[in-house]
């Protein structure tokens, strides 16, 4: 992964909070994760996203020490915690865990839950640390309550305080907001991110929610079928997806066969854009178009037709069928609705430089062995 630590002087010499080098885990003949490469600088909050079964939980379990890798090396704050010969037990890894169901101890009150992992500290320091953590998550007034006397959001804050109490090098958060209802989720998410930032804690947050992955992560790791497809800043993952899978998984995307000739990208809807640096090219590609890049203009002589509408509140998603039978989608403002059947001219918003694919991989430079048409 392109995971160079920030260049600031404070962190330039510090080892990454977490590294995975060639980490592989198989379950019998089934692939859990394969050859994971990841380096997370201290203080980052990385979101881990991918479809069900892609290996997110396996990755967290390997880092936490709940699984042993079959191959590769894991380090936490510069210390090897797992490799071919070494295996550090979970309680000695400086890794904190926050689960979806909060997993608080029901028979312990809030203060005792937070105190749980601090048994190595003298009692007075323990008390002080618990007090500091409860202040941090704004729950000091509920210190004597038991988990069943708390709301879902409060339980989540206790779980976070408990994970942070022993000053872990990394906190792993496994879908921490998914059991909260929609109205609460946004606030708890903002509070959690603020707490992690305030304490400078490095976090790895697993989520199923693409908006959450993009909005919360300083970096987004997209997994598919046990491998990392792309690990990058959110803007790059969305605007410059590395693969066809990432393009389709992170946001809506449609794909059209296209052609680049003398730096001009054309497809069924006409000229899409210029492709700087492709002046000598004559190659077939697929172009990735996102609904916010696709513009529609009603025109009686147009061959494309609006084929379906979806009202999303702020926007109306228009599905358009082209003459070839292929479809594109276009976001329109909430007050624009072209009825089904309307003939429309389809264009791409000015300034768009869409992702180009050859096979399943994005290309930014002309492919060497690209197909060239036979000239008569
Ligand atoms: N204990 C196990 N025994 C056998 N196979 C397993 C085991 N745990 C995970 N797997 C398999 O490893 C792969 C990765 O699973 P994992 O739980 O890491 O996926 P995930 O991305 O967390 O999925 P989800 O989003 O549904 O929780 C899957 O194919 C899964 O069936």
UniProtKB/TrEMBL annotation:
<dbReference type="Pfam" id="PF08402">
    <property type="entry name" value="TOBE_2"/>
</dbReference>
<keyword id="KW-0813">Transport</keyword>
<dbReference type="InterPro" id="IPR008995">
    <property type="entry name" value="Mo/tungstate-bd_C_term_dom"/>
</dbReference>
<keyword id="KW-1003">Cell membrane</keyword>
<protein>
    <recommendedName>
        <fullName>ABC-type quaternary amine transporter</fullName>
        <ecNumber>7.6.2.9</ecNumber>
    </recommendedName>
</protein>
<dbReference type="InterPro" id="IPR003439">
    <property type="entry name" value="ABC_transporter-like_ATP-bd"/>
</dbReference>
<dbReference type="InterPro" id="IPR015853">
    <property type="entry name" value="ABC_transpr_FbpC"/>
</dbReference>
<dbReference type="GO" id="GO:0015418">
    <property type="term" value="F:ABC-type quaternary ammonium compound transporting activity"/>
</dbReference>
<keyword id="KW-0406">Ion transport</keyword>
<dbReference type="Pfam" id="PF00005">
    <property type="entry name" value="ABC_tran"/>
</dbReference>
<keyword id="KW-0408">Iron</keyword>
<dbReference type="InterPro" id="IPR013611">
    <property type="entry name" value="Transp-assoc_OB_typ2"/>
</dbReference>
<keyword id="KW-0410">Iron transport</keyword>
<keyword id="KW-0067">ATP-binding</keyword>
<keyword id="KW-0547">Nucleotide-binding</keyword>
<dbReference type="GO" id="GO:0015408">
    <property type="term" value="F:ABC-type ferric iron transporter activity"/>
</dbReference>
<dbReference type="InterPro" id="IPR050093">
    <property type="entry name" value="ABC_SmlMolc_Importer"/>
</dbReference>
<dbReference type="GO" id="GO:0016887">
    <property type="term" value="F:ATP hydrolysis activity"/>
</dbReference>
<feature type="domain" description="ABC transporter">
    <location>
        <begin position="18"/>
        <end position="250"/>
    </location>
</feature>
<keyword id="KW-0472">Membrane</keyword>
<dbReference type="InterPro" id="IPR027417">
    <property type="entry name" value="P-loop_NTPase"/>
</dbReference>
<dbReference type="GO" id="GO:0043190">
    <property type="term" value="C:ATP-binding cassette (ABC) transporter complex"/>
</dbReference>
<dbReference type="InterPro" id="IPR017871">
    <property type="entry name" value="ABC_transporter-like_CS"/>
</dbReference>
<dbReference type="GO" id="GO:0005524">
    <property type="term" value="F:ATP binding"/>
</dbReference>
<dbReference type="InterPro" id="IPR003593">
    <property type="entry name" value="AAA+_ATPase"/>
</dbReference>
């Amino acid at each position: 992964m392109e995971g160079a630590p920030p260049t600031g002087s404070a962190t330039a010499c510090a080892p990454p909070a977490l590294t995975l080098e060639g980490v592989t885990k198989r379950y019998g003949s089934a692939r859990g994760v394969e050859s994971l490469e990841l380096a997370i600088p201290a203080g980052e909050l990385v979101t881990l996203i991918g479809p069900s079964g892609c290996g997110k939980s396996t990755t967290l379990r390997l880092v936490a020490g709940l699984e042993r890798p079959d191959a590769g090396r894991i380090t936490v704050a510069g210390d090897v915690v797992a490799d071919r010969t070494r295996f550090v037990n979970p309680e000695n890894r400086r890794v904190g865990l926050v689960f979806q169901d909060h997993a608080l101890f029901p028979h312990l009150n809030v203060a005792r839950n937070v105190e749980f992992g601090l048994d190595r500290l003298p009692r007075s320091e323990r008390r002080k640390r618990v007090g500091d953590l409860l202040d941090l998550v704004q729950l000091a007034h509920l210190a004597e309550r038991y988990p069943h006397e708390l709301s879902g959001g409060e339980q989540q804050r206790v779980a976070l305080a408990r994970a942070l109490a022993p000053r872990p090098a990394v906190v792993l958060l496994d879908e921490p907001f998914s059991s909260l209802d929609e109205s609460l989720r946004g606030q708890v998410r903002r509070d959690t991110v603020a707490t992690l930032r305030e304490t400078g804690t490095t976090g790895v947050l697993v989520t199923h929610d693409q908006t959450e992955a993009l909005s919360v992560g300083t970096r987004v790791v997209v997994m598919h079928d046990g491998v990392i497809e792309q690990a990058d800043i959110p803007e790059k993952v969305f605007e410059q997806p590395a693969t066809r899978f990432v393009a389709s998984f992170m946001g809506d995307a449609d794909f059209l066969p296209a052609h680049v000739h003398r730096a001009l990208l054309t497809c069924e809807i006409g000229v899409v854009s210029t492709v700087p640096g492709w002046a000598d090219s004559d190659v077939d590609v697929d172009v990735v178009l996102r609904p916010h890049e696709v513009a529609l203009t009603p025109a009686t002589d147009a061959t494309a037709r609006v084929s379906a509408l979806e009202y999303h509140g702020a926007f109306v998603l228009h599905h358009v069928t082209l003459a070839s039978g292929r479809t594109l989608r276009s976001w329109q403002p909430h007050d624009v609705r072209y009825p089904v059947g309307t003939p429309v001219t389809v264009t791409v918003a000015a300034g768009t430089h869409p992702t180009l694919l050859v096979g399943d991989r994005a290309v930014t430079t002309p492919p060497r062995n690209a197909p060239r048409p036979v000239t008569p």
